[in-house]
């Protein structure tokens, strides 16, 4: 029997975020229809790109304009759509938006959910994720009529697969959340700073940055290499940068292609948030720092000297 | 008002994890109150101080040893505790049903707190499941909270320090985020007092939670081995910087 699989597409300023493509790649399977659910845009504008990754049905989910930002409304609309289109597996991203949407859907459907997956076997119905502060990989068996997966951004390499997609509409404009109202919505990242969880490159500073001014050195370099800036808890607790920049067990968990750690010792709790990075480059003055024995490249030097030099070279082309 | 806080007994993040039988961990390591749940306890205690006739009850589903975590919550300001004892780990679907059954047996929740995430299972979902079984609204990663007469106004943090503000009807479920408050660690007298506070024990099987075909089960746990082979980049700042650029371009292909 043909199975229906659904992916919830995340957009940024009307465009499909790059991180969706790895998720779609993971959700593809033989003898299935692959549905893309689009809530925030005119689906025609994203048709071509979704088709190039193998989507066969694109469902434009219509929400009332004043409900667009309401996670309860969004979840209800998705629950109805899942039932309407007989979806048996639902994929979404483990981003800030996904963390507020996927568990709502799973909870109301009484469906199992694994967040932050980096691997899913659709046949066996198993997912792999990290547990115990990232110290273990857990293989989780899901059972139920509908299964929900939150996919870690950047965890899967996107692979193209051309398909033709049918366009569908799903009117959910009558749905209004009860007991839950949005008063103010920060919405999509208004700052020009790149979102940590989805960045390809992260440059992070720790105690070794010594003060808040020195973090500007990292921001300047980040601009040049299109990176997001992260921090250790020490830098956050000292008040040099906001908590939203913290990487680690009690901060953001990230999997960039490259993580550049500047003046960070590499504590267990920091590693819990970045150990799945593709490549780790550490700049540290202390040759005994833990991070130097668990990275790909290291430099025994002052980060306050290396990073500005790097920026200058890039400045000069 | 009765304020319930769901607290989880989790391995210390600094402890070394040893895997037994391929799918569970050696639990003879140090366990503690889940860090995010500390923010939940702290917030509940704060509300209690400003609200006459309120009571804070810490609830946990865990093994006998989890009483320690309830005691920690009591030392941080909870009035009493309920431990649902069990001898295995349940998924968050069963956990939510058990917590609901225990809370309903005990009283009438005006507010239910959880942490935004447990640091062992990292499930990020128990608060939503509790909300669904009670049919209460839920918010997670709550970093600011105002309780008004018949509603809660909360700020929830998204990534990048951006927050959304929501208004929720009461009762509701709130997943505490790190920015919510600074936990006040108990003083010695707090700890002494907490030893006298009551902890009721309920046996999980007495709650008659129905078996469900839907669920999540850990079939395998493996340590995350990192096979990184560190290579040193040596030279003056100019050389090192150029080498890093080369690596970013040619090896990582991000430039
Ligand atoms: C429950 C719990 C949760 C935690 N959660 C987190 C978390 O989410 N994230 C997190 O990061 N931490 C977390 N921590 C804290 C963690 O244990 C460490 O204290 C913290 O990560 C250390 O930060 P750091 O590496 O910046 O500082 P340090 O460990 O002090 O390291 C600073 C490093 O900088 C080097 N250095 C100094 N000057 C320079 C220079 N000029 N150039 C280059 N190198 C220099 C030093 O050699 C040293 O290695 C948590 C702790 C607990 C108990
Ligand atoms: N066994 C449990 N007992 C009590 N509370 C729990 C339990 N499991 C999870 N919770 C609560 O749910 C929150 C989120 O857990 P999780 O969904 O595992 O990330 C935790 O911070 C706790 O507040």
Description:
The complex is a heterodimer of chains A (317) and B (255). Chain A has 317 residues and is α/β, with parallel strands linked by helices. Chain A has 2 domains: 3-171, HUPs (Rossmann fold, 3-Layer(aba) Sandwich), CATH 3.40.50.620; 190-316, TPP-binding domain (Rossmann fold, 3-Layer(aba) Sandwich), CATH 3.40.50. Helices cover 26% and strands 29% of the residues of chain A. Chain A contains 8 helices and 18 strands. Chain A has a 7-stranded parallel beta sheet with strand order 7-11-6-1-4-5-12, with helices on both faces. In chain A, strands 15-14-16-17-18 form a 5-stranded parallel beta sheet. The model of chain A is unreliable at 187-192 (pLDDT under 50). Chain B is of the alpha/beta class and 255 residues long. The longest helix of chain B has 16 residues, at 35-50. The interface between A and B is large, with 96 and 81 residues. Flavin-adenine dinucleotide (FAD) binds at residues 206-208, 232-235, 246, 248-251, 263-265, 267, 269-270, 273, 283-286, 289, 302-304 of chain A.
Topology of this structure?
The complex is a heterodimer of chains A (317) and B (255).
Chain A: E1 3-8, E2 11-12, E3 15-16, H1 19-27, E4 32-38, H2 44-51, E5 57-62, H3 71-84, E6 87-93, H4 96-109, E7 113-117, E8 119-121, E9 126-131, E10 136-143, E11 147-151, E12 166-171, E13 180-184, E14 201-205, H5 215-225, E15 228-231, H6 233-237, E16 258-262, H7 268-274, E17 279-284, E18 297-300, H8 303-315
Parallel strand pairs in A: 1-4, 1-6, 4-5, 5-12, 6-11, 7-11, 14-15, 14-16, 16-17, 17-18
Antiparallel strand pairs in A: 2-3, 8-9, 9-10
Chain B: E1 2-6, E2 9-11, E3 19-20, E4 24-25, E5 31-33, H1 35-50, E6 55-62, H2 67-75, E7 80-85, H3 92-106, E8 109-115, H4 126-134, E9 138-147, E10 151-157, E11 163-169, E12 172-176, H5 188-196, E13 199-203, E14 215-223, E15 231-232, H6 237-251
Parallel strand pairs in B: 1-6, 1-8, 6-7, 7-13, 8-12, 9-12
Antiparallel strand pairs in B: 2-5, 3-4, 9-10, 10-11
Adenosine monophosphate (AMP) binds next to helix 1, strand 6, helix 3, strand 8 and helix 4 of chain B.
């Amino acid at each position: 029997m043909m199975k229906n699989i659904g992916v919830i597409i995340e957009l940024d300023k009307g465009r499909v975020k790059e991180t969706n493509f790895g998720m779609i790649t993971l959700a593809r399977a033989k003898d299935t229809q692959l549905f893309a659910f689009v809530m925030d845009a005119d689906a025609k504008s994203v048709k071509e790109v979704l088709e190039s990754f193998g989507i066969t049905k694109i469902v434009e989910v219509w929400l009332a304009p004043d409900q667009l930002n309401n996670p309860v409304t969004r979840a209800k609309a998705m629950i109805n759509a899942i039932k309407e289109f007989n979806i048996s597996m639902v994929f979404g991203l483990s981003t800030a938006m996904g963390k507020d949407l996927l568990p709502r859907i799973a909870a109301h459907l009484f469906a199992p959910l694994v967040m932050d997956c980096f691997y899913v076997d659709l046949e066996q119905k198993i997912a792999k994720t990290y547990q115990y502060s990232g110290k273990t990989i857990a293989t989780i068996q899901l059972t139920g009529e509908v299964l929900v997966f939150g996919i870690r951004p950047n965890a899967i390499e996107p692979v193209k697969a051309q398909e033709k997609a049918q366009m569908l509409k799903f009117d959910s404009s009558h749905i209004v959340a009860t007991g839950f109202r949005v008063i103010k919505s920060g919405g999509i990242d208004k700052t020009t700073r790149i979102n940590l969880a989805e960045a390809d490159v992260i440059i992070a500073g720790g105690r070794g940055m010594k003060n808040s001014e020195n973090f500007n050195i990292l921001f300047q370099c980040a601009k040049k290499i299109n990176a997001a800036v992260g921090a250790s808890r020490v830098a956050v607790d000292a008040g040099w940068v906001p908590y939203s920049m913290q990487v680690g067990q009690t901060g953001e968990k990230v999997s960039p292609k490259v993580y550049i750690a500047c003046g960070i010792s590499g504590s267990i709790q920091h590693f819990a948030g970045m150990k799945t990075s593709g490549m780790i480059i550490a700049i540290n003055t202390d040759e005994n720092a833990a991070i130097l024995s668990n990275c790909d490249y290291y430099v025994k030097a002052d980060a306050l000297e290396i990073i500005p030099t790097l920026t200058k070279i890039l400045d000069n082309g | 008002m009765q304020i319930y806080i769901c607290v989880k007994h989790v391995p210390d993040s600094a402890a070394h994890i040893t895997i037994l039988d391929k799918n569970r961990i050696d639990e003879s390591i140090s366990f503690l109150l889940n860090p995010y749940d500390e923010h939940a306890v702290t917030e509940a205690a704060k509300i209690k101080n400003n609200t006459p006739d309120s009571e804070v009850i810490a609830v946990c589903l865990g093994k006998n040893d989890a009483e320690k975590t309830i005691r920690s919550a009591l030392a941080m300001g909870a009035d009493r505790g309920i431990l649902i004892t069990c001898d295995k780990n349940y998924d968050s679907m069963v956990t939510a049903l058990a917590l609901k059954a225990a809370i309903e047996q005990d009283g009438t929740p005006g507010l239910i707190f959880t942490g935004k995430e447990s640091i062992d299972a990292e499930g990020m979902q128990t608060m939503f499941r509790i909300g669904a079984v009670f049919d209460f609204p839920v918010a997670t990663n709550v970093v600011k909270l105002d309780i008004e007469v018949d509603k809660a106004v909360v700020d929830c943090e998204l990534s990048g320090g951006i927050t959304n503000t929501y208004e929720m009807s009461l009762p509701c479920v709130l997943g505490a985020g790190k920015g919510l408050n600074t936990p006040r660690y108990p003083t010695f007298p707090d700890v002494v007092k907490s030893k006298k506070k009551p902890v009721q024990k309920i046996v999980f099987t007495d709650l008659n939670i129905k078996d469900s075909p839907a669920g999540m089960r850990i079939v395998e746990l493996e340590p995350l081995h990192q096979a990184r082979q560190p290579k040193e980049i040596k030279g003056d700042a100019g050389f090192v910087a150029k080498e890093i650029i080369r690596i970013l371009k040619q090896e990582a292909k991000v430039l």
